[in-house]
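Thread title: Can someone regenerate the structure for this chain?

I was given the following input by a collaborator and told the matching C-alpha cells would be attached. They weren't. Posting the sequence so someone can regenerate them.
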Amino acid sequence: MTADKPGLSLAEGLARSGMGFDELWLRQLSIGGDAGRLEVEAYVLELLVVDTFQHDVLAQAINEHFMERNDDHPVGYRSPLLTE
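Best answer:
Regenerated them for you:
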C-alpha cells in the first residue's frame, strides 16, 4: 500500500467481502499464491509479516471477489506497479 492510495487492509477487505479464510485461501491458490490455509489467516490477522508478493496476491483474490459483484478494488496493493 502507498500513502497516496492506501485502500482497505486485508482484514478490512475480507470482512467487507463476506468471504471466510477457507475461500480466500482457495482463491489465492487459484491465482498463484502459495500460502497455506493457516498462513493466510495469520497474514490477514497480522500475526505473521506478509511479504509484498503474498500481500498483493491476497489483495487481488479479495478484489476479484468484489469485481465479481461489480464493485471496485477496495483492498490496497503494496507493489508500486499495481498502485500506479
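The first helix runs from residue 10 to 17.
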